[in-house]
Amino acid sequence: MSRAARCAILAAFPQEVNALPARSKPLFSKEGSRPSPSGRAVVSAVSGSVVDVRFPPGALPEINTALEVLWDRPEALVLEVQQHVNPCTARCVAIQETAGLACGTEVADTGAPITVPVGDAVLGRMLNVVGTPIDRGPPLPPGVPRDRIHRRPPALSEQAPNTQVFQSGIKVIDLLAPLAHGGKAAMFGGAGVGKTVLIMELIRTIADRYAGTSVFAGVGERSREGHELWRDLGRSGVLDRTVLVFGQMNEPPGARWRVALSALTVAEHFRDAMQRDVLLLIDNVFRFVQAGSEVSGLLGRLPSRVGYQPTLGTEIAELEERIASVRGAAVTSIQAVYVPADDFTDPAVAETFTHLDSSIVLSRDMASDGLYPAVDPLASSSSLNDPSVVGPATTRPRKRCGGSSRSTGNCRKSSRFWGSRSWAPRTARPWAARGG
Questions:
Q1: What is the pLDDT of residue 350?
Q2: Do 54 and 157 fall into the same domain?
Q3: In 24, 37, 58, 339, which residue has its Cα 20 to 30 A from 7's Cα atom?
């Protein structure tokens, strides 16, 4: 088309061309970056468990700071800052349900991370992620000390080596994968192989001989399992030396994500401030990872391997590295780890393996045969399986047990391949009956 033809077309439609409205503001508006007009922090957006809060100029809180929603409801609503969207807006994750939260609601900055009550006052109590009693008991007495859930691990110069064996009272564990006093042990297994049952059995057997304090973290725990544990501890008479911290399965991902840190903070106070040995039980570490993956997706982060959050290794390390022994006291941790689809190469399982002193693998084949606890002798291991630590009296039976298990496994594989008739006597074989 020639230039004269284009000019003729434009001249024929002057009103349509001039009728295009002028853009009154840029395409990407910066309204969200404007400070709160009232000079107070207010909710600017709500999307499920993610809440945006607008602050006055220069008042943006730090990451992991706890915010409290000031509304006219009896239940508390705590937010934790996770992202700085712009100089005046913080993106937060809600620890409780956000149903009924409206834009414009005022928010108070606590100036510190989430805190939980610690000390003897919480012994025998069941708490949630922010330290509120959920056992229908009396409220905690006033003046109970509180500690922040976000803390640094002990310095390397303060940590003590883990060379002392922690007797669990379960022979197969003490023989094949002995636990380290002040160390970290985990039980790996798929669904239905007995991880939670073994955790409860450890609580029962250790409570009789263990003079320290126990802290149980129920991460994504089922209500039925929590109720059974509560009743069992009461019947065994060890509830008054135990603290239970629950983030139940029906709670928002923020609560399930932080409940392990809340329980660990309670255990650290007994270790550092009161010089007591603590037994920390966590069920289940995979649900902790799963909750972190949900939070990561809600915040809009791109997923990493197998859909997990890109900060998977960092989040597990922040939890595991705080579990340590110091001079005079120790935190001994026993954890349950769900293995999705019995795949031990799953990133969540592989990342947890690297932080452990003892690994107890539960076998589905043994569980299907009715052998409980279904501890796999070949896959389970411990850093204390050394003659200089456990002695030759334990090393020799462990090696014989491993050899017998290896032979049994080979026979099982051959039987599955050739069939059960391959193990019949030679006289019962067809060619022997024919005289051949």
A1: 94
A2: no
A3: 24
What's the pTM? 0.83
Arithmetic mean of pLDDT, 215-238: 86
Say yes or no: 273 and 127 in one domain: yes
Residue 184 designated active-site: no
Closest CA to 286 of 358, 198, 224, 195: 195
Tokens of 428: 């019962």
**125 and 233 housed in the same domain:** yes
- DSSP one-letter string for 326-365: ETTEEEEEEEEEE-GGG-TTSHHHHHHHTT-SEEEEBPHH
Q: What's the structural domain count of the chain? A: 3
Query: What is the percent of the chain where pLDDT is above 70?
Result: 79
The one catalytic residue in 80, 221, 315, 351 is 221
Write down the pLDDT at residue 410.
Answer: 61
Residue at 352 is within a domain = yes
Residue 337 lies in a domain: yes
Catalytic residue among 6, 73, 158, 222: 222
Q: 3-class SS at 232?
A: helix
Report the CATH number that the domain containing residue 336 is assigned in CATH.
3.40.50.300
| Helix, strand, or coil (residue 248) | strand
Between residues 288 and 161, which one has the greater pLDDT? 288
Query: pLDDT digits over 382-407, tens only?
Result: 888 877 677 666 666 766 776 666 66
Phi, psi of 249 (to 5 degrees): -65, -30
Domain that holds residue 413: 389-419
Q: pLDDT: is 276 or 378 the higher one?
A: 276
416 is an active site residue:
no
User: How is 192-205 classified by DSSP, letter by letter?
Assistant: TSSHHHHHHHHHHH
Q: What is the pLDDT of residues 349-386, one digit of tens each?
A: 999 999 999 999 998 888 888 888 889 888 888 888 87
Q: Which of 137, 126, 130, 133 is nearest to 116 (CA)?
A: 130
* 44 lies in the same domain as 134: no
Q: Please give the distance of CA 18 from its chain centroid, rounded to a whole number.
A: 61
First to last CA, the chain: 97
Which one of 109, 144, 178 terminates a domain? 109
- Evaluate whether 340 touches 281 at the Cβ level (below 8 Å): no
Q: Give the domain CATH number at 67.
A: 2.40.10.170
Please state, rounded to an integer, the average pLDDT across all residues of the chain: 84
Catalytic residue among 195, 258, 271, 322: 195
* Residue 37 confidence (pLDDT) above 50: yes
Burial class (CB in 10 A: 0-12, 13-18, 19+), 60: buried
